[in-house]
């Protein structure tokens, strides 16, 4: 079968609800041709972007799983190894010329480096009469969500209100898997030198498993999500973020599950709190596209460039290792280090502790999270850290400083989450475990607090107050 259409997959490693894959297959079918798929691993680029070993490992597993699916559809898969993005224009163009490819299909990426990569590839292909076809980006509302003045929203609530209207007006039907185009191919035996270990017991590298987890969450947990989502010991969140980060799940798949569940429960889908969480993901990704400087280590609020962050390497290492002396912070950081994932409430607590109480530069915390998270998405991670540091768009007010002990008492009341990840405190009672007395710390071989909460809070507020005077 002649193949002139090539589909380039990146962070969209799925066969279902994949615009580039589906529409390329339709166009090829009209010409009585087939399609091929190419994946271009760039391990050195991932390292430059601080992507974690866990995410790299899951990516490798998802590529293998996708390869098996494509083989059953008779769609050949090609792996073109490169080190960095700047090698891809030549690598992809050479492949297209060698294989008589006339059309390249891909789904848009929004971060600035990825956009530059795609532009460079497209420009080189056009010089050789290969036609690029860019499809919708991998977000729920792929069009720009703009105000009545035609400008990007800088506050989430009006963004969300407009986003919901646009969502109701678009076709949200998941795109089907392409039809088989030939006899099944032998399943490839892929091995990658860059492959890393990850918690495949928690996140199996399988599209079908991701889909099952989505529907199980929406059927059984979504209705309780608002009430239970802030308690880290409860299995109340979807834990689907690793699959969303690498595109093993598509946006319309998530919507289909939400719509179905809400219909079954006779509830308006617009009221789904989980849907609003997915909207935050869109919000941060659209911000990244509208304001490219966010991809360049710069704060959204330029006046916060004047803040002089503290540099204390011992405190930084204590935070990284989960040895700050604040049990809920330490439990959260150990969860991150051990699993590659952290509960959302704990992300806010640990980031607030880092930026407001340690008064450490949010960029260091952002980079550390990215280097560990299996679900690390640049836009969402950057947005969350800038929210916590009060440097970002629609960020937490600078005078709102989480009290980690109070947060612990509220959201881990009995200390069960702390006991799971800080086992040296496991024998303490439910009251003491949130802030052990000095003698208890000594007996448990647990460190004293690295900062004084009250003094650190006042110092942070004073530093932000001083910005108003300039």
In what order do the strands lie side by side in the largest sheet? 3-2-1-4-5
Number of helices, where a helix is a run of at least 4 consecutive DSSP H or I residues: 20
What distance lies between the first and last C-alpha atoms, to the nearest angstrom? 69 Å
Major sheet summary line: 5 strands, parallel
Q: Give the CA-based shape.
A: globular
Q: Can you give the mean pLDDT? A: 96
Which key terms come to mind for this protein?
single chain, 470 residues, mainly alpha, 5-stranded parallel sheet, 20 helices, 5 strands
Descriptive notes:
The chain is mainly α. 49% of the residues lie in helices and 6% in strands. α4 (88-98) runs parallel beside α5 and α15 runs antiparallel to α16 (378-389). The N and C termini lie far apart (69 Å). The model has no long low-confidence stretch (mean pLDDT 96).
Write the layout of secondary structure elements.
Elements (H helix, E strand, L loop, with lengths): L2 E7 L9 H12 L3 E6 L3 H6 L4 H20 L4 E3 L8 H11 L4 E5 L4 H15 L4 E5 L20 H14 L37 H14 L4 H4 L12 H5 L5 H14 L8 H18 L22 H9 L5 H13 L4 H14 L4 H11 L5 H12 L14 H8 L4 H6 L16 H7 L8 H15 L3
Parallel strand pairs: 1-2, 1-4, 2-3, 4-5
Helix pairs in contact: 4-5, 6-11, 7-10, 11-16, 13-14, 14-16, 15-16
């Amino acid at each position: 079968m002649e193949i002139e259409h090539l589909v380039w997959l990146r962070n969209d490693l799925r066969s279902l609800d994949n615009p580039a894959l589906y529409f390329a297959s339709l166009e090829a079918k009209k010409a009585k041709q087939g399609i091929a798929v190419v994946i271009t691993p760039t391990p050195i680029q991932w390292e430059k972007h601080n992507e974690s070993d866990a995410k790299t490992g899951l990516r490798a597993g998802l590529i293998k799983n996708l390869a098996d699916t494509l083989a059953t559809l008779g769609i050949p898969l090609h792996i073109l190894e490169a080190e960095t993005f700047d090698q891809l224009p030549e690598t992809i163009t050479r492949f297209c010329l060698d294989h008589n490819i006339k059309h390249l299909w891909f789904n848009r990426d929004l971060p600035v480096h990825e956009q530059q990569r795609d532009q460079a590839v497209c420009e080189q292909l056009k010089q050789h009469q290969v036609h690029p076809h860019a499809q919708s980006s991998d977000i729920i509302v792929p069009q720009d969500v703009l105000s009545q003045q035609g400008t990007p929203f800088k506050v989430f609530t009006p963004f969300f209100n407009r986003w919901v209207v646009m969502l109701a007006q678009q076709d949200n039907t998941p795109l089907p898997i392409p039809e088989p185009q030939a006899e099944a191919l032998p399943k490839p035996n892929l091995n990658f030198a860059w492959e890393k270990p990850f918690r495949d017991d928690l996140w199996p590298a399988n599209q079908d498993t991701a889909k099952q987890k989505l529907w199980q969450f929406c059927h059984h947990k979504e209705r309780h999500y608002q009430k239970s989502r802030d308690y880290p010991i409860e299995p109340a969140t979807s834990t689907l973020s690793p699959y969303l980060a690498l595109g093993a799940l598509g946006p319309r798949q998530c919507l289909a599950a939400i719509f179905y569940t809400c219909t079954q429960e006779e509830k308006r889908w617009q009221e789904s709190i989980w849907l609003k969480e997915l909207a935050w993901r869109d919000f941060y990704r659209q911000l990244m596209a509208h304001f490219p400087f966010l991809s360049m280590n710069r704060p959204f609020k330029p006046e916060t460039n004047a803040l002089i962050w503290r540099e204390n390497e011992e405190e930084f290492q204590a935070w990284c290792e989960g040895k700050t002396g604040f049990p809920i912070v330490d439990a959260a950081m150990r969860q991150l280090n051990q699993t590659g994932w952290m509960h959302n409430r704990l992300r806010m607590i640990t980031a607030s502790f880092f930026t407001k109480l340690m008064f450490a530069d949010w960029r260091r915390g952002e980079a550390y999270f990215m280097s560990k998270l299996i679900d690390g998405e640049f836009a969402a991670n950057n947005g969350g850290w800038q929210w916590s540091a009060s440097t970002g768009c629609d960020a937490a007010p600078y005078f709102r400083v989480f009290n980690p002990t109070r947060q612990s008492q509220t959201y881990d009341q009995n200390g069960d989450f702390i006991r799971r990840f800080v086992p040296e405190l496991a024998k303490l009672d439910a009251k003491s475990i949130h802030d052990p007395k000095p003698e208890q710390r000594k007996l448990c071989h647990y460190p004293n607090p690295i900062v004084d909460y009250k003094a650190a809070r006042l110092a942070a507020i004073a530093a932000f107050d001083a910005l108003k005077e300039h």
